[in-house]
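Private note to self, pasted from the team thread so I don't lose it. Backbone tokens:
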């Protein structure tokens, strides 16, 4: 009986590893995976939401759009470098792990992440400065309300398991 369990375990592991290897064998033509996180800013419907909530003028909206387009263009190479480093780190996670190259990649990613954080903060400030004092106060209140909701959500107890 133990021999049967051992063979079953080996077969299951072979299937798992085989499917992992098959998934890692992608062509260079494959599109990049969608981002796992959202980028900053007011793209798409978010711009409409903020425009309505803050009562932005057409001129403010146009200026914000210009800032966002410029920021997107300037940050695109940094985001691409970050994605490439993530792909390289993934290879070490799914292959042979080597500490020194992983440390070097992690340090490179930290530098890029810092540059992105600085750039995003600068853009947020530029957008904020376009607001009138009343709009700035309302924006601060919207952010505070959002953070309070997030904190409440994070501290909620998980729902009880469903009875069967």
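Design output:
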């Amino acid at each position: 009986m133990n021999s049967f369990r051992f063979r079953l375990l080996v077969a299951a592991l072979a299937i798992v590893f085989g499917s992992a290897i098959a998934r890692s064998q992608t062509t260079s033509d494959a599109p990049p995976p969608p981002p796992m996180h959202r980028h900053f800013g007011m793209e798409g419907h978010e711009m409409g939401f903020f425009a309505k909530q803050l009562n932005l003028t057409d001129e403010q909206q146009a200026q914000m759009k210009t800032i966002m387009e410029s920021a997107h263009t300037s940050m695109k190479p940094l985001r691409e470098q970050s994605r490439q480093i993530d792909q390289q780190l993934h290879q070490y996670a799914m292959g042979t792990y080597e500490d020194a190259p992983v440390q070097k990649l992690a340090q490179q990613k930290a530098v890029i992440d810092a540059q992105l954080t600085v750039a995003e903060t600068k853009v947020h400030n530029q957008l904020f400065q376009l607001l009138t004092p009343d709009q700035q106060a309302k924006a601060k209140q919207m952010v505070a309300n959002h953070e309070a909701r997030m904190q409440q959500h994070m501290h909620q107890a998980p729902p009880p398991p469903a009875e069967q």
